[in-house]
Amino acid sequence: MTVRTRFAPSPTGYLHIGGARTALFAWAYARHHGGQFILRIEDTDIERSTPQAVQAILDGMRWLGLTPDEGPFFQTQRMMRYKEVIQQMLAAGTAYHCYMSKEELDALRAEQEARKEKPRYDGRWRPEPGKTLPTPPSGVQPVVRFRNPTDGVVAWDDLVKGHIEFSNAELDDFIIARADGTPTYNFCVVVDDWDMRISHVIRGDDHVNNTPRQINLLKALGAPLPRYGHLSMILGPDGTKLSKRHGAVSVMQYDEDGYLPEAVLNYLARLGWSHGDDEIFSMEQFIQWFDLDHITSSAAQFNTEKLNWLNAHYIKHCDDERLGEEIRRRLVREGVVDTAFPEPAAIAALYKDRVQNLNELADAAHPFYVAPHPSEELRTQHLTDGALAALRDLRCRLASAEFVPEAVAKALKETLAATGLKMPQVAIPLRVVLLGQTQSPSIDRVLAVMGREEVLKRLDAVLG
Ligand code: GLU
Hints:
It is built from 19 helices and 12 strands. It is mainly alpha-helical. The strands form 5 sheets. The chain has a 3-stranded parallel beta sheet with strand order 1-2-3, covered by helices on one side. A 3-stranded antiparallel beta sheet has the order 4-5-8. Strands 6-7 form a two-stranded antiparallel sheet. Glutamic acid (GLU) binds next to loops.
């Protein structure tokens, strides 16, 4: 059997972190088995679906590198197919027209609630052998209901949660097409999973209650049943369901916030799945290891510190050129126009083992392009007469030094010897002048990256 999985988001908002984890697991499962991963946009809820949300989902998937083998398919483009299947079901007697009005439904619900019963459709338009159906009222467009089995159970061995069963008596004859002819959610999912030959439905456990209905529909259609695996939800750090309150939940917000996609992927992979104690692994490794046996059936808890730790790790091991691009992208967004020199990649090399995210990296790079205005406090504290005299001495030496770390370090040592000062007494004022702060990676490397012209210009601005 070819493994075919799908990710089927409804475009009613951004791609959130829970959805991304579902997509990752479905993608990895298909990859692990050499199968196919399909992207399907469930946009039949016209009121709530937006083109922006579709775009946000596609952007998020692309950013994470979760490339589908097929799709994106859009349910709104498959309406003819849904209508065709509805007609087939009506003809086969597995679905029927129901003419109950809203008033009648409300009255039925009120009666059931008064009797403390669960509100459910009472089957009054359901055809039965020997039963006489009411006469269809004129001018009323009927809905189409599925003729759900009335007895027995519907059961499946969930790949994550184990055996699950529902009694058919609990499921009523749900609507598969509204009065205006539009198909409903559970129906479209079923036709799509069938047509797209999905072998494994991996999705959030908020869908567990839909599964028995979908299985019954598939059976009525004579369609093969996929296997189902329902992933537990993700909790916020405070133990409640992960939501906007917990900060960034949109995948693209993680890009904004300076996370590398591989850090987010690695983090998501460990949200509810494990391979021994392994915490840091590549996607190739993950695909090789991934199976549904090691998914925890309890909820996974989001932990920002761990994500930050992974991000710092991936930044540290990231290629300088790529980090340079990330710096450039961010500085351009901030309005820094000329980021050609110094090379952002060279700045990345200086700072990449000191930051937790790419925004910190871009912040560190900023003063290399835009001369800082050190605060009055920093100036009085660090640019003392003694310090300025040392900087003047250093300026002369740097004017003719080659701008590589060794030569710059040599010039600095000569200044220390000439002035009798210690390294921090010169390096700190130098940092204040060049970067507007007292700390930085090794000062000779900072100077070498910044380049002679800019270093001398900034020194001259304070030395007069
Ligand atoms: N469209 C559904 C959602 O966004 C998912 C449907 C499914 O995976 O079966 O929650």
